Amino acid sequence: MVDNFTLSCPTPRPRDSIVTLSHGGGGRLMKDLVDDLFITAFNNPELAEKHDSARVAAPGGRLAFTTDSYVVNPLVFPGGDIGSLAITGTVNDLAMAGAVPHRLSCAMIIEEGLRIETLAAIVDSMAATAAAARACVVTGDTKVVEHGKGDGLYINTAGIGLIPTGREVVPRRVTAGDTIVISGDIGRHGIAVMSVREGLAFETTIESDCALLTEPVELLFGAGIDCHCLRDLTRGGLGAALIEIAETTMLHLDIDETAVPISGQVRGACEILGLDPLFVACEGRFVAFVPADQAVHAVDALHRHALGVGAKVVGTVAAVQPDERGLVTSRSSLGTRRVLDLPVGDQLPRIC
Amino acid sequence: MVDNFTLSCPTPRPRDSIVTLSHGGGGRLMKDLVDDLFITAFNNPELAEKHDSARVAAPGGRLAFTTDSYVVNPLVFPGGDIGSLAITGTVNDLAMAGAVPHRLSCAMIIEEGLRIETLAAIVDSMAATAAAARACVVTGDTKVVEHGKGDGLYINTAGIGLIPTGREVVPRRVTAGDTIVISGDIGRHGIAVMSVREGLAFETTIESDCALLTEPVELLFGAGIDCHCLRDLTRGGLGAALIEIAETTMLHLDIDETAVPISGQVRGACEILGLDPLFVACEGRFVAFVPADQAVHAVDALHRHALGVGAKVVGTVAAVQPDERGLVTSRSSLGTRRVLDLPVGDQLPRIC
Predict the structure, then answer these.
(1) Do A107 and B69 make contact, defined as CB atoms within 8 angstroms?
(2) What is the pTM of this model?
(3) B26 in reach of chain A (CB within 8 A)
(4) What is the pairing mode between strands A252-256 and A328-331?
(5) Does residue B5 lie within any of the structural domains?
(6) Is residue B4 part of a domain?
(7) Beta B100-111 vs B136-145: how paired, if at all?
């Protein structure tokens, strides 16, 4: 029952109310939203300074710096949500440069009409994921756009990571003779998002592989592996990741398609949907380019972590022939070889 | 004339074509867009490494870290565009922490149907503004959303700045007795965007004040001014900036409204539109909280720069009385004092 007292409160902000344009206007509603939701959830002294920029202590040396916007539809999917994904994706991009996550930013573009309860749940998910990654969200931004000019919520995260001295993880270090190790099975993120969006029912729910990769990557370095390059298998999947590395380095990568771990569920879903699993996105898988004589050791190291139990060797960087520069070839179960090429667009839009 | 040869080209990408969902899918079209447009325009070795994170050298010490998303409507306005604004806003947030811009990120959320020509012009504008700020865009991201799920283009930029040793520019250093110096006239950005969006015709075009603030801020430090705090007058304008500082520090700020520089044009537009100019956004103006005995010197230093010719003292941090903690008061031309309060929402939505 609504009584007069409730009606006379200056700014009631129950969590079941909705975001309005006024929440993005720099006025009282925005300040309250930022204070009550973001500063409370991300709770740390740098954010609490409420300055135009966070002031961050950093040791000298190499930093990693990355950004991604997240437009995944729907906002919640089996195994994650746009909030956990936004933290995970940026932390993983730092890990791929051999960096330990240090500080994160969070910028929201909210469509008018989003329930504040939904926003709060997503912010809580971001805060929990950031805590798991031992990274603080120290700066942010909130914008609101009119109904019909967004799609619920878009999140941008940027991240600063610290690269320990001596680590040089970068595409140009990939060398002919390197072994390509994959950390586990592919394609679960793309299929999980697609199946819930399109209302596809499989016998059991396929969950996203969305996971923080800092720990398995650190296990590799801890085991003394000289990772020449690391690449997570996000938009475009394993195929796109390898093609990018091949084209950047102008080397020839050769993989054994039969060695690539793919769950029966994902394989079945791909067959039904007419998708090539090599190009379906993951959000918790990566490949490592390591010296051939360290490959077994690298796989062993990954096996010690839950996110690496399915790790195996899937290919090599071949000796380059002039006509194979920048190519990725793949051997099928029939022994034939095909050249992998990027699809023109994407098999699955809006999955990250 | 279109001949057979042209038609047989594998992927013609004339700049007058439009962005499609496929440009955000991690496939060939996205790779080409990123290579041809972003990597070419922002041209620097860190970006050219094409890694998941840029690897950035940084000296030890304090960094500033900030992010903002830009949803300004329309994309181009008198005196700027969303691209120049996105670089300027983030560089200015770094400057407000006393930092020199070091590295920037750029993440685009593009609505399907945007002309590539428009996107290219905006990217060129970003690159030119970043060059003027002596900051490199070293990492980025591209997403495309369906028609009707965006509004042409949203841009997020994050920035890392270097804070020279000994600078401590932060709200909690604001002290009773400090003088508040403003760098110039207020309100031109908000009115410029509003007038073009709403088709309001004034006698002469009001241009945005959008400008990089690093140079005038560095002039202050170069003159030996101990800036306790700096704050740019963006969303919510001078009024919101002062209220935020007052509420964060629980001090009492008192300004002389008659001293606040406002052009006749902006004053006239505000009267017609029923806006309070104190709460209209700027994108190239700031206030500095400086020790009282350095105020004249600070104003003199700002006068040496084109962006500071209108600088003047507008108020003080008053001795705090218990009932005035966290308040901003403003003296009018009639000698009366009013307490400034944040509007609930915003007078002008989507101006940044």
Answers:
(1) yes
(2) 0.94
(3) yes
(4) parallel
(5) no
(6) no
(7) parallel
